[in-house]
Amino acid sequence: MSCVFCQIIDGSIPSKAIYQDEHCYAFADIKPQAPVHILVVPRQHIASIAHAEKDHKHLLGHLQWAAAEIARTKGLSQGYRTVINTGEDGGQTVDHIHVHLLGGRPMSWPPG
Ligand code: AMP
Ligand code: ZN
């Protein structure tokens, strides 16, 4: 059984694409933490950035670029936050790299 985000990417779990290209797929988070909460995931299954290898560095940059592109289309001109949770202490619950794009409200710092 492939992971939940692989199933979203291959269509076996239905979702509405907010952005997609040959490298990544973006969709709304099921439990939004802000008025805009979108997940940008690579089509390739990589468990976390701790599992990423040197060959993946362009892909990691592409995910951040895609998040910025989506933020522009969503009109987040006041700013937004991108987050990558990694591992247990990082609060990662789905073991497939994803960039959270959060916006539409002021963000506090430090995060919890
Ligand atoms: P993280 O805790 O950083 O691993 O983030 C995982 C995120 O995936 C959480 O914000 C969840 O709400 C979200 N999530 C889990 N399952 C789904 C799903 N089927 N569709 C959309 N978002 C999901
Ligand atoms: Zn996966």
Number of separate strands: 5
Radius of gyration: 14 Å
Helical fraction equals 10-25%
N-to-C SSE string, H for helix and E for strand:
HEEEHEHE
Q: What is the residue-averaged pLDDT?
A: 97
Output the strand order for the largest sheet.
1-2-3-5-4
Give the terminus-to-terminus CA distance: 32 Å
Strand percent estimate: 15-25%
CATH class: Alpha Beta
CATH topology: HIT family, subunit A
Bound molecules: adenosine monophosphate, zinc ion
Poorly predicted tracts of residues: none
Task: Name the CATH superfamily assignment.
Answer: HIT-like
The biggest beta sheet is recorded as: 5 strands, antiparallel
Question: What brief labels describe this structure?
Answer:
alpha+beta, HIT family, subunit A, five-stranded antiparallel beta sheet, 21% strand, globular, binds adenosine monophosphate, binds zinc ion
Write the layout of secondary structure elements.
Elements: H1 4-9, E1 19-20, E2 24-28, E3 36-42, H2 57-73, E4 80-83, H3 87-90, E5 99-103
Antiparallel strand pairs: 1-2, 2-3, 3-5, 4-5
Overview of this protein structure:
The chain has 112 residues and is of the alpha+beta class. It has a single domain, classed as 2-Layer Sandwich (HIT family, subunit A), CATH 3.30.428.10. The chain is built from 3 helices and 5 strands. Strands 1-2-3-5-4 form a 5-stranded antiparallel beta sheet, covered by helices on one side. Strand 1 and strand 2 form a beta hairpin. 22% of the residues are buried. The model has no long low-confidence stretch (mean pLDDT 97).
